Amino acid sequence: MKNSLNIMLLYGGISAEREISIITAKAISESLNNIGHNVIEIDAGINLAVDLNKYKPDLVFNGLHGTWGEDGEVQKIIERFKIPYTHSGVEASQIAMDKIKSAEIFNKNNFFHPKTYLIKINEINKQNFFEYPFVLKPRSEGSSVGVGIIRSKSDRENYIQENMFRKEILIQQFIKGPEINVAIFGNNKTGSLEIDPKNEFYDYESKYFDKGQTKHIIPPRLNVDQIKEVEKLALNAHHLIGCKGISRIEFILDSTSKQFYILELNTQPGMTPTSLVPEIAKYHGVNFDDLIKWMIEDAK
Predict the structure, then answer these.
(1) Which of helix, strand or coil describes residue 169?
(2) Which of 60, 204, 256, 257 has its CA 20 to 30 A from that of 85?
(3) Cα(111)–Cα(91) distance, rounded to whole angstroms?
(4) Which residues constitute the domain of residue 253?
């Protein structure tokens, strides 16, 4: 390929994370221009195939988040045109986005994972799966959209009322302890940080709109062996799911057992000013433009 590429940057989309994708894309677009590429910005909707056929880009940079952009559907469309694209492929994207499918794989491969059940949302009150607190979350969303820690009957009732449109929901064991996020770059590079959120957990607001009140602690407040352990676990998960490019894997270090519990794997990590993967990369000497360059080379 020539040095200067015509790169189609997908942003926006139709998911609950549209707002974050727009913010992500601004940073990516600026970087792509900085390093000398021609950027074609596309608000990726159901007419994506028309846009791909019209512009015939050299490469697609996927700046989408959530359903449609992160669950394999957009990847299927791009692959029909045989155009290289950033991030993971169809199957890995589908598995990582589906928290039940990924949990089954993690459990079968001896990862510690919170006990998780898929139920209809109107059945939450019918059975006592866990004592308080427990977690309710959507089966297929990212950025902690729709995640709630349920500590009381009123919490439960409020969550049900606000999420009836989801029809089915995951009910999950609550694991208490510090949250560790690991960034994966390609086949073997890792880095990690600890989250100290301003809210009860690292929720949507904390990830994107807390204006620095959430603390990102690099390196995590772990001993050397623990850091090696959690980063090895993350790399194993990345390969197990079949991921490509960058990913971010979330863990909780159980305060009681001192075991790392894997929560989920994100194939389209945020690239906003407060996002974790760029911050981890910077800590390890890779600035944002160099990270974008690497992602383009990895996608070719």
Answers:
(1) strand
(2) 204
(3) 20
(4) 95-112+176-299
